[in-house]
Amino acid sequence: MPNIEEHSRISLARTGKDYAEIHEWIDKDPLTKVERHDITKIHEYGQMMLNRYGSEGLQEYLQHIHDDLLARFGHVKEDLEKSVQDTLAYFGVTARPSKALPSEYETLLADLELLRQAGVGPDDVIHCQRVCRKALEIASKINKPVNYDLIARGGLLHDLGKAKGRADDHGYVGAEIGRSMGIPSEILRIMETHVKAGLTPKEASEAGIPEKDYTPETLEEKIVVYADKLVDIIYSPDQVVSSETEAETRFTEILTAHPNLAKSKEAAQRQIRNHLEIQFMINSI
Question: Of 58, 148, 165, 213, which sees the most CB atoms within 10 A?
Fold first, then answer.
């Protein structure tokens, strides 16, 4: 892996500053070096870097982690670089990083902090991250205009309501929390419509929330609904699939065979209709 001096030289060439303090913080102490390279802590440390050094310092911290991962594991698999970049993409790490972290990544970091501060549990935060990534992946396959920022933030924040509970009202509850925080209405709609692929007025009444039709209408809403269910299938404790591709190709069969993943027969039918609609758009390219 690059040593501290090499990391500082790269930073100097990229930004005009060596950011030696950041690189020393990551690498200098052998007792903390492993922990400070842990990508599961990248949200915590990333926010610290953003607060202390600003956008550019955050970029240098992330690029340090990125470069070290490639140096350690780049020989294992030819496409590892793409895999690493995909994993870290929403943190602002790119093949040719700009001098400043794009504002949308600062927003996503703030959204992650919002989830934690609201009381969303660690497992649910991880789920939200997975949905964000899967939703962006799905959107990239569709040859239609989509709002990627909305998809990313909607995917990340869709389960904000799980700070208060896990029942069928959590989409509506999340939207109420988000509304009090000034989150845009389009994201609130994603929160409201993702539960069971769109609660009917009757289901809403049974859940104790305003009686209206929560059917997802926009493409962005439908993509997050689809990503949410795919992630449920991919990471199901029952291990019903062995790959992400299998979750898509066997989607209808899986929801039919595993009612616990569908939540209800009616929800399964809505999820399957949404799956078929999105797959048609993907395969029509």
Answer: 58
* Residues 6+ away with beta carbon under 8 Å from 7: 19, 23, 27, 64, 67
- What whole-number distance in Å separates Cα of residue 149 and Cα of residue 155? 10
Q: CA–CA separation, 91 vs 87, rounded Å?
A: 9
Q: What radius of gyration, in Å, describes the C-alpha atoms of the chain?
A: 20
104-283 is classed CATH 2.60.40: no
Give the whole-angstrom CA distance, residue 281 versus residue 28: 51
3-class secondary structure, 184? coil
- Specify the DSSP element, H or E, that contains 207: helix 201-207
* All structural domains of the chain with their residue ranges: 4-101, 104-283
**Report field, pTM of the whole predicted structure over 0.85:** no
Q: How many CB atoms lie within 10 A of CB 238?
A: 9
Residue 283 identity: N
Tokens at 57, concatenated: 């310092």
Angle of CA points 274, 278, 279, to nearest 5°: 115
Q: What is the pLDDT of residue 270?
A: 96
- pLDDT reported for residue 22: 92
Q: Which residue has the higher pLDDT, 215 or 263?
A: 215
Question: Could you tell me which of 30, 40, 46 has the C-alpha nearest to residue 122?
Answer: 40
Q: Is the predicted pLDDT of residue 70 greater than 70, yes or no? A: no
Give the integer Cα–Cα distance in Å for 99 and 190: 33
